[in-house]
Protein: Glutathione S-transferase
Organism: Brachypodium distachyon
Amino acid sequence: MAGGVADEVKLLGHWGSPFVTRVKLAFHLKGVSYEYAEEDLHNKSELLLRSNPVHKAVPVLIHNGRPICESQVILQYIDETFDGNLLLPADPHERAVARFWAAYIDNEMGAPWEKAYRARTAEERAEWMKQIVAAVDALEGGLRECSKGKGGFFFFGGGGVGYVDVVLGSLVPYVHAAVVLSGDRLFDAGRTPLLAAWLERFGELDLAKAVLQDVDKVVEYSRAIYARNAAGVTS
């Protein structure tokens, strides 16, 4: 596998992007050293535009001069390419289940959350948040199933952090910020006790402390997005 001293590993990102954060989490778990380049999303670099000409978005991983785009594709590439802890299970069925829940998080939580961020009214934002809450309720069952018989319900991978934990973990600062911004406690101990315990346990990891954004900074960033959209300005 790759990951030797000759490897050139560069990540193009933006500090506020949870999709970039999950790549950073994967690198930290694998112990991979990399160069990070912060992108101005209002004035994208030629390197970004050249490396991701289809979506023109972060994250982009450039490994030995070759770009890889889309966060979940990047995670799987990292898992297959670099030595260290495996993110995806070795068992094919368990691997398929992990991919399902990771896709679910992006499609059923991430996509509505993006809509909520871009909403121009409080009413519109509240409707999208209802969809997110419903998705979280289903995810509670996913955590119960994925971690069953594997040393407790703390992580989707069972006893240790895995692929789904990395995907969901990238949203942790925004889960905490939602409480401040709108009072929405998405991982509520009464409604989703397993996810509430997962949230606390994940936040205690050295991995999370090293990589995740400061919640106050995320709150400030989110409020700025809300204000721009309320004023009818596209970000």
Notes: The two ends are 40 Å apart (CA to CA).
